[in-house]
Amino acid sequence: MDHISIELTPKSKLISNHHGFRKGTLYNFFKYYVKQQGKYRSLEQIRVDEFEEFLSYEKTFKNETKKGKRINSVDTFENKYSHIRSFYQTMKKYNKISSHHFEEEKKKLIQNFDIEEEKQEVNHVLNNENISLILDFYSNQKDAIRNKTIFLLCLAFGLERSTLIKLNTSNIRNNKLILDNRELVLPPVLEKTINELIIENKQRNIRNGYLFNTKYNKQYKVITEGTINSIFDVLRKINKEFSVLSPSFIRTNLIKRLFYNGYSIEEIVYLTGTDLVSLSKIISYEEILEQIKAKNKKGNKNHPFKEFLYERGGH
């Protein structure tokens, strides 16, 4: 890359994702930088404001040409700055450079850009019609009971992959799902599918106690994150827009819908197990204020997916 000699290969000991920076960000920046400068500059001479110029260029180029993912969120800018700063910190650590200019706080850098936090709107992929399609689809697939139970648990409580993998029959007691210090009452439809799954596991002679299993080399073993991903990936066969569906996607949408359906922050934390830091990234301070103003106008709160968890007899 002209006179700037930086190795951006997977074998590089200095430039790797392990150290907290992304080769893509670095490659794009230095490619842009070489084009702008047209002459040799040492790494120690590169300034923060020059990286800011690159971010502005990339934001304008991608958003106007629609090439690549749009760049609008604060998180995107913070992440890119973290990549370049981590790179310089690592170069200094290994004595490749003696100093650098990338000590500026991320918040200060972000103030230089005309961007606001993107609001995470409720995605209407999870409407009643689509959920019905998904449940019907699972009913006609292999491991129907298992897959429907996983999907319904995501709808009900926003469970993450790591939690789904660990679920054991001991977590089910007296029609409740016991997770750490939380006792979550199982909606009728979900309770029914879980009981059906436990019976099916016994019929298959699965004795490891885990709720969710997968058959591998003629033996049943606890389900993996990869298998959970495939359970959601297959939904794109119904509709391409379903490719966004995943436990984390449903979790985010569930939290948003619970909030707008009148659930308090405390109730959302208890139901979904979400910590307050994560919650603040989904529900903004302004939204909380607006919801408080509108709360007196609302009636009783309902679970956003009540129709599929409480009122239907399953699919």
* H/E series: HHHHHHHEEEHEEHHHHHH
Kindly state the number of beta strands.
5
How far apart lie the N and C ends?
A: 59 Å
Contiguous low-pLDDT stretches (5 residues minimum) are 1-21, 115-121
- Strand arrangement in the largest pleated sheet: 1-2-3
Largest sheet: 3 strands, antiparallel
The chain-level mean pLDDT equals 79
The number of helical runs is: 14
Question: Roughly how much helix do the residues carry, as a percent range?
Answer: 40-55%
The assigned structural class equals mainly alpha
What portion of the residues fall into strands of 2 or more residues?
A: 5-15%
Overall shape: it is: elongated
What value does the Rg take, in angstroms?
A: 24 Å
What are the defining features of this structure?
14 helices, mainly alpha, 315 residues, 6% strand, three-stranded antiparallel beta sheet
Structure description:
With 315 residues, this protein is mostly helical. The chain starts with 22 loop residues before the first helix and ends with a helix. The N terminus is likely disordered.
